[in-house]
Amino acid sequence: MQKIVVVGSLNMDVVIETPHMPERGETISGRKIDLVSGGKGANQAYALGKLGGDVTMIGAVGKDAAGEAILESLRSVNVNVEGIRQMEDGTTGQAFIAVDDDGDNSIIIIAGTNGMVTKELIDEKADIIRESDIVIMQFEIPLEVVEYVKEMAVKEGKTVIVDPAPAVTGLPEHFWNGIDYIKPNETELAILTGMKMNTREELVKGARVMIGKGVKNVIVTLGKEGCLMVTEDTEEFFCPYKVKALDTTAAGDSFTAAFALALSQGKTYGEAVSLGQKVSSIAVTRKGAQTSIPTLEEVKTIWDE
Questions:
Q1: What is the residue-wise DSSP string for 223-247?
Q2: Could you tell me what percent of the chain has a pLDDT over 90?
Q3: Is the pLDDT of residue 289 over 80?
Q4: 247 is catalytic
Q5: Using CA atoms in the order 47, 13, 34, 50, what is the torsion angle rounded to 10 degrees?
Q6: I want to staple 262 with a disulfide (CB 3.0 to 4.6 A). Which of 59, 67, 216, 272 is the partner?
């Protein structure tokens, strides 16, 4: 099995259950509030650990209760946390997540120590990247650091996976060059390309725009509609695994983790997409981020028997 490193965000998630998302200026009564370890990077690392992957995380937390809780959560599933720095002068990142009765969510992120991940920190942890085979990143740490790690990983011949969330506009084309896989959802792809994404044809066109910028493969996750894989020469639609969603928090993160795990085991991209869909389909039937991630044994029991 190949080694995987996740470079990215660690947050304490404040999860609020609400009957519906409030409109502008509207005050509504929520039902419940929970504190759950999260952050897209930490979720991906946690999922990889729980699924049995060989994974190390690079990032930053504060020397506070939230940071300690996040580290303990990652250790509990055998994630190597030697790449995570505890900052004396920063507060652990936070995410405020509203989850409605349909299982959809809306998220506000406070970067905290995630914004303190620097090129200097990466240089200190560069041996972890060199010793890994697959590098996973997201957009919840400074983008100049994401590009810095990407350049390092490409130079070292690593497989680079980027989950471009939260998506931003106006990134230079060289930012994308050399990335092996990006995994936007349709909304993120629309933001990245400035194009509408209402039909499958538009999704394919948008994915091909990203390939034109230097990305080798684009996986567009479409929730209950499945997902689309576009390469330079092919396009393939993958039907969804039908479930009733309770909470979509960390669905994309669990997909990314499972996809990377399958690649680390020498699986084809089709097999990797299938595992990603199986894992994320289970995650959306459970509440929370890391608390929703299944083990590989659960995945096999539910979908493979």
A1: GGG-EEEEESS-EEEEPPPP---S-
A2: 79
A3: no
A4: no
A5: 10
A6: 272
pLDDT tens column, 234-278:
999 999 888 888 888 789 999 999 999 999 999 999 999 999 999
Average pLDDT over residues 10-24: 91
42 neighbors 70 (Cβ within 8 angstroms): yes
Marked catalytic residue, from 54, 180, 247, 253: 253
- At residue 229, φ and ψ (nearest 5 deg) are -115, 125
Which phi and psi (to 5°) does residue 75 adopt? -60, -30
User: Which among 165, 161, 126, 141 has a CA at the least distance from the CA of 48?
Assistant: 161
Closest CA to 201 of 223, 180, 182, 186: 186
pTM of the model: 0.92
pLDDT band at 305 (very low <50, low <70, confident <90, very high): low
Give the whole-angstrom CA distance, residue 9 versus residue 161. Answer: 15
